[in-house]
Amino acid sequence: MTYVVITFVVLLILNIYCSSISQMLFYKSKESAMIEKCMLAADEISTLEVLNTSTITQIVNQLESLTVTRLMITDQQGKVLYDSSESCVGSYALFPEIMQALQVRDDTPTGNKVFFWQYHDGTTDSRAAAPIVNYGTVVGCVYMTEYDTTQGALIRSLQLTVLRITLFLEVVVVVFSLAFAKTFSRRLRRIMASMRIIREGDYSHKVDMSGSDELTVLAEEINDLTDRLQTSERKRSQFVSDASHELKTPLASIKLLTDSILQYDMDLETTREFVSDIGSEAERLNRMTTKLLSLTKAEGRSTEESEIIYMAPTVQRVARMLRANAMQTNITFHLELEEDTPILILEDDLYQIVFNLMENGIKYNLPGGSLTVRLSRQEDNAVLQVTDTGMGIPEDAIAHIFERFYRVDKARSRATGGSGLGLSIVHTIVQRNRGQIDVSSVVGQGTTFTIAFPAFDAEVDRE
């Protein structure tokens, strides 16, 4: 309706404008013709020595081009000397046009040329007056009127044509608007119905929308959103299932151990052994919940929380923390930290990355192996590499190692206390800090994790 009203107003304005312009053109045309006739008659009459009815009549009879409805000649006082209708000869014609034409002022010493035009009901009423000037003095006035039904009919026909075109266009606009609104509403209702289905939880539902307009683009965006929601829901369900499974095992062990202590009469040594096992399972639960909290914190933290730091001090601190663990299996550290480059990251985030990678390099290494941590600069990136000489990762498992609770060797992971969350935390933190992580591994030879962060060059970044 708004579109229809707007187009109606625009077409109405165009209609009025066209009518006004057409009348203006006719006005200019008639003004030029009438003034020209008045000046022609005034010039011929100005040659007369004496102005009277007889001499003026002779001149008028000679001017065959003066085809007007009425012609009137007056003297300088407005007294009618000639009237084509012969009704006002001898009287004074005080018409506004005549008075204005005879008016002499300092700025118009030879009078004024006057024209009046009016259109009404298919007829044009034109009136023109021009002074008769003899040797620079106004001696009379020529006054003409013309009632033109032909021109009026032409104006009326033109206005009716414009009106018909306007009405036709408005009908077309209304029909088009109704058809468009009906089609648009039907397509929009289809989208709304699909959104209600999706709101109920059916993320597999797709909006079926053909075409290439904005609604089709909206439908494609909704379908893309439902795909993401479906993926997110699947990951959420998988995460809940995996977390429940992972938490259930130590809880079941604790329950079994406590039931055994309560139900059986054990000696002190056996009871201490069971209590020690309960403590181990509780510690395992604690590590798992800590990892889950770290993962949640990593996903929720803003990228705006960062600082400029070098990686070498953090690597050295983690190495000191894990050296005792490495000594238990005779793992040797090799730190190549000379080519250090500042990056933009929180120190806690960097610590989590380095700690998890080095801890995994110790857990899944071979006795007597080595763990190498290398810092380097590659073009605009600061690169951290952690390489172990352990068992390696099968090629088909590399694509899944960053998934939550995924373990390459489940038995070994449980034995070493792994929760399957460490690499997921690393991957999340690296992505959040605009970094990239790659893995290369050969089974039986070892694994290399390569992480690249945008280098923070102070002078360049200031520019």
Describe this structure in words.
This protein has 463 residues and is α+β, with helices and mostly antiparallel strands. Helix 5 packs antiparallel against helix 6 (268-300), helix 7 (312-328) packs parallel to helix 8 (347-363) and helix 8 (347-363) runs antiparallel to helix 11. Among the domains are: 2-159, Beta-Lactamase, CATH 3.30.450.20; 303-462, Heat Shock Protein 90. It contains twelve helices and twelve strands. The two termini are 54 Å apart. The strands form three sheets. The chain has a five-stranded antiparallel beta sheet, sandwiched between helices. It is rod-shaped, with a radius of gyration of 51 Å. Strand 1 (70-75) and strand 2 form a beta hairpin.
CATH topology (level 3) name of the domain at 303-462: Heat Shock Protein 90
Strand content: 15-25%
Q: What structural class results from the helix and strand content?
A: alpha+beta
Rounded Rg:
51 Å
With strands numbered from the N-terminus, the spatial order across the biggest sheet is 2-1-5-4-3
- Helix fraction? 55-70%
CATH superfamily of the domain at 303-462: Histidine kinase-like ATPase, C-terminal domain
Q: What would you call the quaternary organization? A: single chain
Number of helical stretches of at least 4 residues: 12
How many β-strands, per DSSP? Answer: 12
Order of helical and strand elements = HHEEHEEEHHHEHEEHEEHHHEEH
CATH level-two architecture of the domain at 303-462: 2-Layer Sandwich
